[in-house]
Amino acid sequence: MNDIAPVPVSFHVRRPWADGGRLLVPRSSTMAIEKNAPAIELINVSRRFLSPTGKSLTALRDFTMTVERGEFVAVVGPTGCGKSTTLNLVTGLASPSAGEVRVMGAPVTGIDPRIGFVFQSDALFPWRTVIENVMAGPLFRGRAKPDAAAAARDWLARVGLSRFEQHYPHQLSGGMRKRVALAQTFINGPEILLMDEPFSALDVQTRVLMHEELLRLWSEAKASVVFVTHDLEEAIALADKVYVLTAGPATVKSVYTIDLPRPRVVADIRYEQSFINYSRTIWADLKEEVETSYARAAA
Ligand SMILES: Nc1ncnc2c1ncn2[C@@H]1O[C@H](COP(=O)(O)OP(=O)(O)OP(=O)(O)O)[C@@H](O)[C@H]1O
C-alpha cells in the first residue's frame, strides 16, 4: 500500500506577480520539453534561508519528489516544515541551495507559463468583474479581447457562474470566489497546477463541493497537480499519492499510493473502509512529525 521513502523536499510560492499570482512570464530556457520526463522532479534538494538574526535556516534538506504527468500529488506535513518552500522552487521563484529542480525534464531557470497556481487567499482583482478576472490571463498572453471573453464565458459556465459574470469579487461567497479562481487558472491550460491550501478558508460543505469541482476539472485538463494541505482527509480523497514530510527541515518521510478508484465521490468516499484505513495509517505517521514540531515550538 505504501512505500516509505526517507528523502527530503519542500516549497514556497506566494502569488507575487501582477496577475493575481497565477500568470507567469515565460523564460525561454524553461520551455524545453522532454517528451517522457516527469512533470516535476526535485532531486536531493536543499534550501537554506538567512533568518532575521543572520543565522542560516535549512527549510528543506535532501528533498526528493517526482510528480508524473497527469498525477495528483498531495503534500502534508507539520506547520512551518517547508511545504510552501517546495512549491516556490518548482515555480522558479526560489532557487535550491543544493540539488536540482526539473520541470518537464528541463532545469527550472525562471518562471514558467505552463504552471498555474491557486492559493489559500483570494487572488482576484477586487476592482474587476468576475469575467474580467477570468479574462485577465488570456489577455495577458496576447489573446484578442472577444476571444478572451468567449473563453472566459465558457469557463464560467463550467464552474457554474454564468449568471455572475458582471459581479465583483466582494459580491460573491467564498466558494464562488474559489470557483472564479479555478476558472481563472484553468483557462490558461496549465500543464502543472500548484495549490497551496486552496480551500482551507472554506466551510466543510463548500470544501467538499470544491473537491468535486477540482477533480472534474483536473480529469478533463489532465494537468499534474501538487496540492499542499494540512487536512489529511482532503489529501487522501483527492490524490494519487500522499507525501508525508518531516518536521523541518522538510524531508520526505513517506509516500503513500492511494489506490482508491476514480472517479471519486468525495462526499462519500471518506466513509469507505479503505479510506479509513489509509487515514489511520498515514495519520500515525504524520502525527509523530506534528508532535515533534509542537515539542520544538514549545521548547
Ligand atoms: N524567505 C524566507 N526567509 C527566511 N525564512 C524563510 C523564508 N521562507 C520560508 N522561510 C522559513 O522556512 C521554513 C519553511 O517555511 P514554509 O512556509 O515553506 O513552511 P510551510 O510548511 O509551508 O508552513 P505552513 O504549514 O505554516 O504554511 C519556515 O521556518 C520559514 O520561517
Automatic annotation (TrEMBL):
CDD domains to which the protein is assigned, alphabetical: ABC_NrtD_SsuB_transporters
A Pfam family reported for this protein in Swiss-Prot or TrEMBL: ABC_tran
Transmembrane annotation, as ranges: none
InterPro entries xref list: AAA+_ATPase, ABC_transporter-like_ATP-bd, ABC_transporter-like_CS, ABC_transporter_ATP-bind, P-loop_NTPase
ABC transporter domain segment(s): 40-272
Similarity remark: Belongs to the ABC transporter superfamily.
Entry keyword Nucleotide-binding: yes
Signal peptide annotation: none
UniProt keywords, alphabetically: ATP-binding, Nucleotide-binding, Transport
GO MF assignments: ATP binding; ATP hydrolysis activity
Protein name: NitT/TauT family transport system ATP-binding protein
